[in-house]
Design brief:
- It comes from Rhynchospora pubera.
- The chain is α/β, with parallel strands linked by helices.
- Helix content is about 30%, strand content about 20%.
- It has eleven helices and 18 strands.
- The strands form three sheets. Strands 1-2-3-4-5-7-10-12-14-15-16-17-18 form a 13-stranded parallel β-sheet, sandwiched between helices. It has a three-stranded parallel β-sheet with strand order 9-11-13.
- Helix 6 links the parallel strand 15 and strand 16.
- The longest helix is centred in the N-terminal third of the chain and has 22 residues.
Amino acid sequence: MAGADRISGLHDSILTHILSFLPTKDAVCTRGLSKRWRNVWASVTVLSFDSVDFWPDDISSFSFRSEMLERQDKFVKFIDTVLAARQVQQVDRFRLAWKYQVRNYPPHGHPVRRWIPIVVQQLPRVLSILLQPRLDRVDIIPEPIFTCSSLEEIKLQVKNRADHSIWHDRLNPMVVTLPHLRKLNLGHFRIEAEFMDKLFLGCPILEEVELYSCWLDISQISCGNLRSLVINGCYHSRAIEVSIPSLQNLKVTVMCSQPARFVFKNMSSLVKASICLLDLNDVDFVIFDFGAEILAGLSGVTTLDIVLCGWRAEDMLKHILWTCPHFENLKFMNFESFDGCTPCTTDCIDMVDRLVQHSSALKGVTVYGCQGDDDDEIDLLEELRKLLGEYGILVERHQGSIYGSLNELKELAHEHMHLLQSILWEPLDEDGEGEEGEAWWEGGAISEEEEEEGEDEAEEMEDGDENIDEEEEDDEWK
């Protein structure tokens, strides 16, 4: 029949599957379509909350701090209401993204601390939490996360926005029992040896670990089952020995200011390794103490990626090639460059030649990032083809990407600068404020009066009546 509502006639399981692809805020809005849809959203097993959904399209339209606080409070109230309405419904995936937090919560009083225990009781398979607290350094990540037996994937990134902070959230739960965990992503934490020991003992089938902009206060990483390890923009003041016989994929970013080295051992299963040499253009000092032997433990790989970013990255590559191992299994080598450094220079060609002479099984070299309209680079690329052609090695040029993008690398460098400066007790600038022209919600400092006001308001919210009558609830859903 013409005009028939066929979608509403579908089974609940199909409707909830469709709604699982929407942000939870949009899924909840479907309750107003008809009586048929009123409670469908409550059975969706995917919950996705993003504070940006509660902002206007143009963030610059916020003219007063009170407007931002009001929007944030609505965001918090919405999550409280959704979790309360679902009661014991199971959750398969839970995602929370909360950037630019402007209210300071009392110690141990952050809303996330009351949400996570509720979610954990609903046995999620995937948990993703990305937070950007304002100025408070609070214990945000609750213990129940590390004893949730249903979890298979965890992503935790808590980036404190206090420019002066020298403290970094330590992950040190009393117990780690995650028997089904396979993937773990941690960002902006201080990782200590005690936590790593608990992690690998309590996660018997853990396969993938990614550490982003963390302070690594450890001396070794050793795990029997790990297959993939990514270390991006992390700081460590002492050598870290990585010994993982089962590891197949490795990705490491090495900063020019890194004061300690990685030592790779027992990598008998390693297939692919990606090494990014990142020059921090804003750093005047260069340490280069990551060791020329960084490639020694990677000699068994079949694919090697080398990414250079910044004008001093080429010197970093020369440093690690002082002692070049023999790559008996290396078949494919890839080069990529960003931000003032190109692999198509005479020095880089000499370094490629050095690697080739130590790679008897090499079949192909791919160069990324060369611009076709640069005659000098085209000539150098042809020189590289001629040189490697003598070895029977195919040389290709590709406009794609190994690592990601220049913006991604710049963000990584920026994060490392924040980490490095906070560890060295150095503020971002002489006034201790954000960059010039930066909006207050993007990192500028707030006054002590505003901070106290935020704390008072937070206490009032905690002490207030959390019950919502039916009329108020209907208004909230709308």
